[in-house]
Write a structure and sequence with these properties.
With 413 residues, this protein is an alpha+beta fold. It has helices at residues 2-36, 61-75, 88-94, 179-197, 223-227, 237-240, 266-269, 289-295, and strands spanning 47-57, 79-85, 101-105, 114-118, 123-129, 145-151, 154-162, 203-208, 232-234, 257-262, 275-278, 302-306, 322-328, 331-338, 345-350, 358-363, 368-373, 381-386, 391-399, 402-411. It is built from eight helices and 20 strands. α1 (2-36) packs parallel to α2 (61-75) and α2 crosses α3 (88-94).
Length: 413
């Protein structure tokens, strides 16, 4: 009888403790939700884009869903670029009560990439993936997700990605399977694509890029863009150089979530109204980082806010014909490659007796896709090639063992 009474007391005590814990948790969540509503960042006079890895969304079920909805509503932005969205329907649920926001995704295997955008400020929206073929899965485990849209009647493209994780911070350039090497290759694929297709248009690369902007030169996969400040800016470089408590991934700590703009947006970046911030949502919660990490994510959002300059209109860079002349050892090579970019079919013409003995088309990994041989005395060569996949290719003109010229071409989706 005493044993039975003891068991009943234990059960009652456990149930009472459990009910109290659940009640306290509900009160804590309600307090947190109220705190999140106090967040402010977006304005009517600026364009804002944020990159945010919402760890394994929704990591804490309905609490995460509700919290993310409150954050998106309160910050009042134009565009959210999201990573690690494990459940697209739950993301739609998070913004279901926000009439001016819409969630969009890539292909069926979108691998966690998504956008949430403001339908009142952005129109003519198109969403598509690039480098989705298996051959790119090592450098780009997640196919980059692009959103093209008009803001104030001007076109902007944003590329969202989540680069390969991990590594030891040392870039082993001789090892293609090295994590830093894979990230570098993936980054170059994207940047070469942008430079070939949209060099003079407004482009923003965002995401959890899983590497550090302040690495030394020998280990920095972003060094090319960091050096070329006339054509590129990592707008969050100031955050990366700030104290670690202000970084996007404070658990490590490190700053891994970046925003890179090209030349067409640098003037906007230099405006006094521009703001770049790692938005510390956790500071608005009762238990700070502990609540944020438990309820929402282990990454903070990183944002770029700028006043859009209407008088800066990039030129149309759509190329219908590429015709060039080069000189090598006293020879002039006249050729044309068109259309570039192409949806599939590529035409190559070589005019006159050029001494070209071979034309090769290689993919970005250096693999020969097609090769055509000819006599060096042949005149007026014309070939048509069907490029098999979307992505970047390189056309090479050879005279025996001498490489005369390499030309970059793009096949779009």
């Amino acid at each position: 009888m005493k044993n039975l009474l003891s068991i009943l007391i234990v059960i009652y005590t456990f149930q009472a403790f459990s009910q109290k814990s659940q009640t306290n948790l509900k009160l804590e969540n309600a307090t947190s939700a109220e705190s999140l509503q106090k967040l402010k960042w977006g304005t009517d006079s600026t364009f804002e884009v944020i990159t945010w890895n919402i760890e394994r969304f929704p990591k804490n079920g309905q609490t995460t869903i509700d919290s993310v909805g409150k954050i998106i509503s309160a910050l009042n932005l134009d565009l959210w670029a999201l990573q690690e969205i494990n459940d697209s329907n739950k993301l739609k649920q998070a913004i279901a009560k926000l009439p001016n926001y819409k969630a969009v995704f890539g292909t069926a295997s979108f691998r966690g990439l998504a956008y949430v955008y403001n339908t009142k400020t952005m129109d003519s929206v198109e969403v598509f993936n690039i480098f989705s073929q298996r051959q790119y899965s090592s450098p780009l485990p997640r196919s980059p997700l692009i959103i093209k849209f008009k803001y104030k009647d001007s076109t902007i493209r944003v590329i969202n990605n989540h680069y390969k994780c991990c590594g030891n911070g040392i870039w082993d350039k001789s090892n293609l399977n090295d994590e830093e090497s894979r990230r570098y290759k993936g980054h170059r694929l994207i940047m070469d694509y942008v430079d070939s297709l949209w060099k003079d248009e407004r482009v923003i690369l965002v995401g959890d890029l899983n590497d550090i902007l302040t690495d030394g030169r020998s280990n920095n996969i972003f060094q090319k863009e960091l050096d070329d400040t006339s054509n590129y800016r990592f707008v969050d470089l100031s955050v990366a150089k700030d104290a670690s408590k202000n970084w996007s991934y404070p658990t490590w700590p490190s700053h891994l979530d970046h925003i890179l703009i090209n030349q067409a947006l640098i003037k906007q970046f230099k405006q006094p109204t521009t703001e770049v911030s790692c938005i510390q949502v956790d500071q608005n919660l009762p238990n700070k980082w502990s609540d944020y990490d438990r309820m929402i994510s282990d990454h903070r959002p990183v944002g770029f806010k700028f006043e859009f300059l209407m008088n800066q209109t990039p030129k149309d860079t759509t190329i219908k014909d590429t015709t060039n002349s080069i000189s090598k050892e006293g020879k002039v090579l006249n050729y044309s490659i068109y259309p570039n970019p192409t949806k599939s079919l590529l035409n190559i013409k070589i005019q006159g007796k050029q001494g070209v003995t071979k034309v090769e088309i290689r993919d970005v990994l250096g693999k020969i896709i097609v090769q055509k041989n000819t006599s060096e005395n042949t005149t007026d060569i014309e070939w048509n090639f069907d490029l098999p996949f979307s992505g970047t290719y390189f056309v090479q003109f050879w005279e025996n063992t001498n490489l005369l010229k390499t030309e970059k071409v793009i096949r779009t989706e």
